[in-house]
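Below is our example:

___
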Amino acid sequence: MLGFYENFPKNPHLTKELSSAVPIRSLQQKMAKVLDEINRKTFKLEEVSCPSILGCSIVFEVGIADSMNFNFIDEEETKRIEKTLRKYSLRIMDLFCAVRYYQNTEEKRTSLRFDYYLIRIVFERSLVKLQVFHERGPRHVSPSDIVCLLVKSVNKIYSRKVLRIVESF
């Protein structure tokens, strides 16, 4: 089943609730495009997180769940997601996210240890719940950094802010 990973961990490291100002299906279509774009981009660590390593660049590899597997979100997978979303919206969108770190020097680019995250996005009318589970790695990018990157990237596509983090009291 597209979007659902059967073995998602029961105790996420971070849970955030977001309010959404657009219909769920539209939001999911934009998220698929955003994830496709993030997969092709190299970021400086300071663009995403508080830099713990100087001269570090990062690359995200994001995949969407399909029962027991994850499919890398590229142009072809984005089209498959959009085709599914034309029929129905997803209640849950589970993602696997590998964050690859590289130390950049003038001579070479050295690969460092990676972070591995599982992300569950639950859609309920105008409420979106994000759960982030850190599988393993050095955690140079925190779970909240991943949520912020996703929210900023989606909001950048729209002409107004459509996702807002709901503050809990």
Observations:
- The chain is about 30% helix and 40% strand.
- Residues 14-165 form one domain.
- The longest strand covers residues 92-104.
- Helices lie at 24-39, 45-48, 75-87, 143-157.
